[in-house]
Amino acid sequence: MIGGPGSGKGTQCGKLVEKYGFTHLSTGDLLRNELSSESERSKLIRDIMERGDLVPSGIILELLKEAMLASLSDTKGFLIDGYPQEVKQGEEFGRRIGDPHLVICMDCSADTMTNRLLQRSQSSPCAQDTSTIAKRLEAYYRASIPVIAYYETKTQLHKVNAEGTP
């Protein structure tokens, strides 16, 4: 499941998990869980996120692989939310874990994502301001066009209009 921050990836993954029994792995949740651990890795992740930069693919892939291995014996499949954010991450995932069977792209405007992120930020320990959100969106848009093109040639890719309510 790919899409910008606040595009509704997590919400829709929750619905798909309920209906089909998949294991939902959100890179955002994995990062937040790691941040709460106060490990050395969490300090590195916190510094990167506070700058509004993307967490390096190696760290994300480590977190994903650990979570997948932990759930491997009791799942019907995995819904991976928020990864890859760059083509090289998709290539690395394909080499180390395997290519996805389907990619869903949540498509909505920057205004919609910004409003959702500001609302989420009010109840989150990782509060974000509009400047940080703008940097995250800019990074997403810069990387998303090549990622979408990459998956259009590798597997089934479906775009979903994510402007509306859940």
Query: Per CATH, what is the topology?
Result: Rossmann fold
Helix fraction by DSSP (H/I, runs of at least 4): 55-70%
Number of domains: 1
Corresponding CATH superfamily: P-loop containing nucleotide triphosphate hydrolases
CATH architecture designation = 3-Layer(aba) Sandwich
| Overall average residue pLDDT | 89
The parts where pLDDT drops under 50 for at least 5 residues are: none
Number of strands: 5
- Give the class-level CATH name: Alpha Beta
**Taking Cα atoms only, what radius of gyration do you get, to the nearest Å?**
15 Å
Main sheet, how many strands, which sense, barrel?
3 strands, parallel
Give the spatial strand order of the biggest sheet.
Answer: 1-4-5
Family: Belongs to the adenylate kinase family.
GO molecular function: ATP binding; nucleobase-containing compound kinase activity
InterPro entries: Adenylat/UMP-CMP_kin, P-loop_NTPase
Protein name: Adenylate kinase 5
SSE layout and pairing:
Elements (H helix, E strand, L loop, with lengths): L1 E2 L5 H12 L2 E4 H10 L3 H11 L6 H15 L6 E4 L5 H10 L5 E6 L2 H12 L8 H25 L1 E6 L5
Parallel strand pairs: 1-4, 2-3, 4-5
Describe this structure in words.
Helices cover 57% and strands 13% of the residues. The chain has 166 residues and is an alpha/beta fold. It has one domain (2-161): Rossmann fold. It has a 3-stranded parallel beta sheet with strand order 1-4-5, with helices on one face. Helix 2 (27-36) packs across helix 3, helix 2 packs across helix 4 and helix 6 crosses helix 7. The longest helix is centred in the last third of the chain and has 25 residues, at 130-154. The radius of gyration is 15 Å and the shape is globular. The model has no long low-confidence stretch (mean pLDDT 89).
